């Protein structure tokens, strides 16, 4: 292997969770929808948050921040949301991806815990959309979902939690 073929490999993990909106909150925001992986999930309770509360894209954004060391969710996303009116989590993801520089994403793996909605019919569309947003193929995006067997607040139907693990590589620096 030549020096030009040498890579640094890394993994990073991101997590996010949101509770479902209450009936009173929904009355004040009747157009709010559940968004997962950048897709609107029909006939499902929406999640609470300043943005669209897309826990999947938030977990991915946090994982990229873990890789790059540049936190997006927090001050940057709060500014985008409150000052610029940007509530689309895909825009936060795009902001995080600007800092990848030489990092090349190789694989994304998502684990979702929620009693509802049932995601089995949504897994493939979500994988394809996340692949589109990141420039990967659907084969490079894994997604599993579990009900949690009622053991946590998410398994009891109070919200949704997502973990995302990313695998990436970048060329090893040439120190010659």
Relevant terms:
alpha+beta, single chain, 28% helix, 60s Ribosomal Protein L30, Chain: A, globular, 176 residues, 4-stranded mixed β-sheet, 6 strands
pLDDT < 50 stretches: none
What's the end-to-end separation, in Å?
Answer: 16 Å
For this structure, the CATH topology is: 60s Ribosomal Protein L30, Chain: A
CATH superfamily: 2-C-methyl-D-erythritol 2,4-cyclodiphosphate synthase
Strand content: 25-35%
Examine the secondary-structure arrangement and name the CATH architecture: 2-Layer Sandwich
* Shape descriptor: globular
Structural class: alpha+beta
Element string (H = helix, E = strand):
EHEEHHHEHEE
Question: How many H/I helices?
Answer: 5
Describe the secondary structure blueprint for this structure:
Layout: E1 7-19, H1 23-28, E2 34-36, E3 39-41, H2 55-68, H3 75-82, H4 89-97, E4 104-113, H5 123-134, E5 141-146, E6 159-171
Parallel strand pairs: 4-5
Antiparallel strand pairs: 1-6, 2-3, 4-6
Helix pairs in contact: 2-4
Please characterize this protein's 3D structure.
The chain is α+β, with helices and mostly antiparallel strands and 176 residues long. It has a single domain, classed as 60s Ribosomal Protein L30, Chain: A (2-Layer Sandwich). 28% of the residues lie in helices and 27% in strands. It contains 5 helices and 6 strands. The chain has helices spanning 23-28, 55-68, 75-82, 89-97, 123-134, and strands spanning 7-19, 34-36, 39-41, 104-113, 141-146, 159-171. The chain has a 4-stranded mixed β-sheet. Helix 2 (55-68) packs parallel to helix 4. The longest helix is centred in the middle third of the chain and has 14 residues, at 55-68. It is globular, with a radius of gyration of 17 Å. The chain starts with 6 loop residues before the first strand and ends in a 5-residue tail after the last strand. 34% of the residues are buried.
């Amino acid at each position: 292997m030549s020096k030009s073929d040498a890579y640094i490999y890394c993994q990073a993990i991101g997590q996010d969770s949101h509770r479902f909106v209450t009936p009173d909150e929904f009355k004040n925001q009747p157009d709010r929808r559940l968004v997962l992986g950048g897709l609107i999930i029909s006939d499902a309770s929406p999640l609470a948050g300043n943005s669209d509360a897309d826990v999947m894209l938030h977990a991915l954004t946090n994982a990229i921040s873990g890789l790059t060391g540049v936190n997006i969710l927090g001050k940057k996303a709060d500014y985008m949301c409150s000052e610029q009116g940007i509530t689309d989590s895909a825009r936060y993801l795009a902001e995080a991806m600007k800092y990848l520089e030489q990092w090349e994403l190789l694989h994304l793996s998502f684990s979702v815990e929620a009693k509802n909605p049932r995601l089995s019919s949504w897994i493939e569309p979500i994988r394809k959309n996340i692949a589109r947003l990141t420039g990967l193929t659907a084969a490079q995006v894994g997604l599993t979902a579990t009900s949690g067997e009622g053991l946590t607040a998410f398994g009891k139907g109070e919200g949704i939690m997502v973990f995302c693990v990313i695998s990436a590589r970048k060329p090893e620096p040439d120190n010659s």
